[in-house]
Amino acid sequence: MLLASTTLLSGCAGIIAEDSYISESTSQVANQAQYKAYRQNPTPLSPNTASNNTSPKAASTQRSSKIIALDGLGQSNNIQLRRQITQALVISPNIKAQQAQVEQARQQVIINAADQGLNLSLNNNNSLRTSAQSSSATKSFDLALQGSWNADLWGTLSAQTKIAQLQLSQSNINLEQAKNTLIADITSAWYQLIYNQALLKLTQEQQANTKDQLAAIETSYQRGLSESLDVFLARGNFESAQSSTIARQQALASAARDLEQLLTKYPTGKLLINAKLTKLQADYRLGVPADLLKNRADLRSSWQGLLIEDARVAASYAQQFPQFSLTGNLSLTNARLSDLFKENLAWSLASAISQTVFDNGKKKAQYQQAKAKLLAAEQQFLLTLQGAIKEVETLLYAEKSIAQQIARQLRTLKNTLLSYEQVQIQYQNGIANYQQVLNLQQQLFNNQRSQLDLEMQQIDNRVKLILALGSQTPSSNLTGIQ
Question: Which of 271, 340, 365, 455 is most deeply packed, by most CB within 10 A?
Fold first, then answer.
């Protein structure tokens, strides 16, 4: 009987000795060499093209040769922004919630690990009994030490512990991702507020110019030097400028509230920043596509989720086999408390084996369900990976496109400014009419706003690009925080 049991154990152990249920194709894509080849030729590769290491951790063994350890925004010394981000990371409700999730996962690891060890409990019972046949009372003092241990023959408990450890790792990654996102959102909102301040200033300058022009034209009309049409056009232009100023004030207040909310402050809408839009520099880490596997928090979180489902498949498979446990008991009993440790020592040791004989296919269905969830997690990981590659490529293309647009817009703005100065001279000399002046004035304003829009688009795109590339020190990349 013992030999048969030994044979059974060794045979079943051989069945479940497989390290992972993750498909080979998914492991290949997770490998750095496969990933680099995937970017160069996005067609399915044969298994021979991948190396033996199938974990994203392998990607950390190589680094890009193009590393410039600066922040990517030219704002490494922006102490004001750094201070605000540092405070927000401490008091943000979202960050605190993520930290609580990490603590929950950490305690779950302790709970699951405790199930694998020996559990001891000490019980003390004191009783006083009487009967109808005897008038005297009988005293009894009992002290019992009980121990129990679950034998993890098939790896069920170790799989549960592994799941808890992976969930803790995933929670830490999610916390990192939440911090990255908060830093990126605050940085973007910071420059959005500066952008809206600059746009309001430009609109106010246009309103002041139209007001001066209206006063000059009304004076000229009173002297009989201008037509009434010029007066009506100037008044309409001034009213339009006033309306634009009111709209920009509303947009500025909204941008201020957005930033104040991210900084966990009361949204008064009165926050102002004494700064200008930054001039970007190409001082960020680009790397290679394989770097995304170790740098991007969402990819690492998705990979951890895949490993969790893989461990759940192993645990579900092991649940189909008999479960074995040992229970021991050591007890002392005596009528007198002073003599409790002198005699009446008793002990017992019991073993238990439990195995489901018939459950209408429940455990088998649970195992198949776990495998289906693993397959879904694999595909989700691949989708996340493809989306990350697409996002970076799109942002890199936009980086070049916006830079080209800014260069052309600068030339357009310069030519428009020269044209506006020329038409003003012509109008003063009676060569051009006021409608031409208004047209060029509006065109100049539109070009100045387009220039600001492109600069803001460039900053937004750069913040998104840094976040998309990922980093082990995201706050340092975005704001210079160490």
Answer: 455
Strand order in the sheet with 138-151: 119-129, 138-151, 323-334, 345-354
Any idea what DSSP says for residue 44? P
Q: List the one residue out of 293, 312, 306 whose CA is nearest residue 376.
A: 306
CA dihedral over 159, 160, 161, 167, signed as positive or negative? positive
In angstroms, the CA 170 to CA 109 distance is: 13
Closest by Cα among 400, 395, 402, 398 to 465: 395
CATH code of 63-126+137-479, in short, is: 1.20.1600.10
Of 179, 402, 186, nearest in space to 273 by CA: 186
Q: Left (φ > 0), alpha (ψ -120 to 50) or beta: where does 152 sit?
A: beta
Residues 6 or more apart from 154 whose CB is under 8 A from it? 12, 13, 16, 318, 321
pLDDT tens, 3-21? 333 232 233 333 233 456 6
Q: What is the pLDDT of residues 384-410, one digit of tens each?
A: 889 988 998 999 999 999 999 999 999
Domain boundaries, the chain: 63-126+137-479
Query: In terms of pTM, does the model score above 0.85?
Result: no
State in Å, rounded, how far the first CA of the chain is from the last one: 65
